[in-house]
């Protein structure tokens, strides 16, 4: 199967990428999660870059996240680097404020909830890979647990005070559809697919939960046949894909490949034949191509043409979009209001302003 299809280039629901920075995965809400300064014994040589109600935020906290930033976000000079660090510091200040407000609201996170999130973070990796990932980011497992606890605390606070109160009325949905009707016009038929892939040789990494990797063609054939029989017996496709598929791009998401336009299948003879006659919910026979042995599941199909508002998927998409837009606006206002009531001193910002655009003066 071509790289273009396997990477989910056309996916509306792209599966999580294994290469994402671990810290970015800590919170579903996307907040930065660092252990607050007050939870650690302050060292006399730690430089304070901000204070929130008297509690310090240290330079080394900012620098740690800056060093672990995702690949591709490299800065082009001292000014850009300082701007990035200032943004990180602002997020840390916001987190400190939110965590204090959560404590005042008596929001707590259980050890079981922390354990569950840690397991979600760990699942795409082997035990050794996960420990290395944590160590490479200058953390211990205890540090990670504390960050997870704080991220979940903030999630709970936002859900309690914001998300749970958001409603979208039907007239709002109808208005959005009318204004964006063209975006619901499907240009060509699209297939929502999931796959299980078994490769006929050892892989550098095994992306599945069982660390299952066929080492030869004969072993791969035995493995894919066994999985096919288990599917025929009624076992869950997504679960088996997560546990046994050898495709690092789709295995973490239960094999989900997203939506693939019919035109992109033109050169995929084996896949086209496998899809022939399938109805949503059905799985294909085993087929082989240059990448290995596949089993495909047709999750859904969208035919070309205008999708009406009466389509449940259309209404659901609009509803989620409107909820997300409202949530982002209310979050920003909520945090700004809390920040206005907190005593915040941003020493890094003061030093940048005092340097009059000379980044060399901010060290």
Lay out the secondary structure:
Layout (H helix, E strand, L loop, with lengths): L2 H4 L15 H4 L22 E5 L2 E4 H9 L10 H27 L6 H12 L4 H10 L4 H21 L8 H10 L5 E2 L3 E9 L18 H16 L4 H8 L11 E6 L7 H7 L11 E3 L2 E11 L2 E2 L5 H30 L2 E3 H8 L9
Helix pairs in contact: 3-4, 4-7, 5-7, 8-12
Outline the structure in words.
By secondary structure, this protein is an alpha+beta fold. It has 13 helices and 9 strands. The longest helix is centred in the C-terminal third of the chain and has 30 residues, at 312-341.
| Adjacency order of strands in the biggest sheet | 5-4-7-6
Please give the largest β-sheet. 4 strands, antiparallel
Residue share in helices?
40-55%
Strand content: 5-15%
- Spell out the helices and strands N to C: HHEEHHHHHHEEHHEHEEEHEH
Q: State the total count of DSSP E strands.
A: 9
Structural class computed from helices and strand pairing? alpha+beta
Q: How many helices?
A: 13
Quote the distance from N terminus to C terminus: 52 Å
Search tags:
alpha+beta, four-stranded antiparallel β-sheet, single chain, three-stranded antiparallel β-sheet, 13 helices
Question: What's a quick, concise take on this entry?
Answer:
The protein has helices at residues 3-6, 22-25, 59-67, 78-104, 111-122, 127-136, 141-161, 170-179, 217-232, 237-244, 269-275, 312-341, 347-354; strands spanning 48-52, 55-58, 185-186, 190-198, 256-261, 287-289, 292-302, 305-306, 344-346. The protein has 363 residues and is α+β, with helices and mostly antiparallel strands.
